[in-house]
Amino acid sequence: MSPTKTKTRSNGKAPAGEGKKTIRSGKTTFRPRARLLRILGEELISDDVVAITELVKNAHDADATQVTLSFEGVTQPAGRIVVEDDGDGMDLDTLLHRWMEPASSEKGSGRRRRTRKGRRMLGEKGVGRFAVDKLAANLELVTRPRRQKDELRARFDWEEYSDDSRMLSDIQSPWEFRKPQTINKSGTALIMSSLRGEWTERSFRRLCTRLSRLIPPQTRDDSFRIEVRSDEFPDYSGTVGDGFLERSPYHVEACFDGERSILVKLNGRSVTTVPWNGQEELRCGPVWIRFHAFDLETESLARIGSRMEVRAWLRHWSGVSTYRDGFRIWPYGEPHDDWLRLDQRRVNNPVVRLSNNQIVGFVHLTADGNPQLRDQTNREGLISNEAFEHLRRLVLFVLQILEAERQTIRHPARRERRKPGRVKLNGRHPIALEIEELAAQANGRLSGRMKALAKRAHDHAEREAASDRHVVEGLVELAAAGQALTGIHTTIEPVIEAMGERIGSIRTMARGRKELSAAVRSLESELVTLKSRLSLVEPMSEVVTKRRYSMDIARELRSFLAMIEPLLDAQGVQMEIEVPEDGLLRSSMRPQTFHRFLHVLTANSIDWLGGTDRQSRIKVQLEAKDRSAEIVFADNGPGIPGEVADQIFEPHMSLKEGGKGMGLTIASSILEQHGGAISLLRDGRRKGAAFRVSLPLRGGKSQKRP
């Protein structure tokens, strides 16, 4: 058998050590095709708004004081976009050997450099040229450096780079020097025509919102201004502004030194030092944080400005943005980017927690001070590593400080409460007044002691009243949230039914097509799962009827596990359910109510399991005991300290920082309404928290399974 000949070029020499084993050898190089630039642009630049943002960053890196974005007839492909700045401009060498050589820029060198004015370079990967291709098919680049009398003009046809048959080195773009026509003193103008997309009012709204948050308002000055001009959407023309930011009712500034101390300034008061109370040292580096929080009630918004305008502004500004060296890191803080999972926190504690649409936040980093917080390759987000997780913990810690401040302002501890028979007289409680009257009739030492007793009685009554108010306020807010969810359920249910009908139509069209049929079956399964989860917020109007429910406890436990499984997976928690194989255990409870009860216990366990290093587990065991069903619900978390074990079912008893302590109170109330009970197991055999739940069996005993 003759050896197979290779087709590689040969230099006629065999590599050292190869000897007669090598038939032919050589060297080769990558020869990129022209369309590679188009592919890179599509991957690196997600949309037109991001593309414009990258061009603004280039103007910043050129030490411009102003960048002007002109949109002319952009609702049609024949329109054009002009991005013009008054920065340093480019000479011929910069154009030919930096701009025309992607990834060769000094910005991407090993040493991070600053601009002539000391600005930190932002466009590190040279994606600005790809941004132009994303926006338009044709580019006219006009530039003029300082102290150069002529301007340099170059033209690019990006459609030439779409040809599969052409190599990147085959395409040439013309350039020329000419008398100044576009640039006055210095700067660069990018004139883009043959637009790839049509701009709408929504596009301009998104663009102006992004640009207004590109530079944090607290650090903005006249050293870099962004101006928008549009002939078709004049309402969005003008210099980018801040809106209602400084009118927020709650705000906090915090500066973390990179070790353990945090300087905090709440609502403009004097600065205080708050130590980091986490178990481990934060490795994210020094961070500066500022939060503005808003109440969404109509009355609260009216105190800030026009309700409609404030709501519209919040829709686009809400979220927590992140900045490095004064410029925005995308996509943090975008309307649908809840990178801190604030909405999930609010679901678990709606009374105290702020949701993503109530917060306008700014997190400031530096490239030198936070070297472990690095960009992803596509420039949209930071790499998820230990430093990033520590940053999240720090930001949430500061947010908790602001949430506590908000609660103090909204619910002052000593607000007067008027009730029949408990009316205060001259600011004093009636019982205290009675004791003071007796003290006036007494003499000497007894009178002094009675006055002290009157003060203690008054203070005690005030504390009790405050506690009662918190309970009522907590229940009212929970009831309001539940009422809102009930309303949402009634609007979503018809949509789900319509989706089911459309999926049925698609199933008919997909017959004989295996891949499409499999996708349809997957959609049907996900729709069933969605319906089961919505049952948690199904209206409770039937509860008040005289209808008796007969719930199969074991089946509903399994049903709840299937419903909650995605949440458990997301939190890294395993749930195991053990039910008896023989005997049917039924109880008179609505299945949805039982699921809500289980959700309270599960959410409580997840809150505490998050801080453990061991594998997080929840175990649920069901068995028949006399005339009741007994459920043991246990987790392997840190457990409940013995000194507070007798108080955990009381309203507002919580060991979590900022917690309202209503979950177990509600769970206990649900069981009591159905003749059941819940208690904390303290047998010493289990690690973590374990609850014993008893439910009366319907009929008084278990039944044989059919």
In what range is the share of β-strand residues? 15-25%
Describe the global form: globular
Describe the biggest sheet?
8 strands, mixed
Stretches where pLDDT is under 50 for at least 5 consecutive residues are: 1-12, 107-112, 414-427, 539-546
Tally of distinct domains: 4
The SS-based structural class is alpha+beta
Output the CATH class name of the largest domain. Answer: Alpha Beta
Strand order of the largest sheet: 5-4-3-6-2-1-7-8
Mean pLDDT: 78
Spell out the CATH superfamily of the largest domain.
Answer: Histidine kinase-like ATPase, C-terminal domain
Give helix % range: 25-40%
Number of helices: 15
Short synopsis of the structure:
Helix content is 35%, strand content 18%. The chain has helices at 35-44, 48-61, 92-99, 128-135, 201-212, 298-302, 307-317, 342-348, 386-410, 430-441, 444-509, 514-534, 553-571, 591-609, 663-673, and strands at residues 66-72, 80-85, 136-144, 151-157, 175-178, 187-195, 225-230, 238-239, 250-256, 261-266, 272-275, 287-293, 319-324, 327-329, 359-365, 551-552, 573-578, 586-587, 616-625, 628-635, 677-680, 690-696. The protein starts with 34 loop residues before the first helix and ends in a 10-residue tail after the last strand.
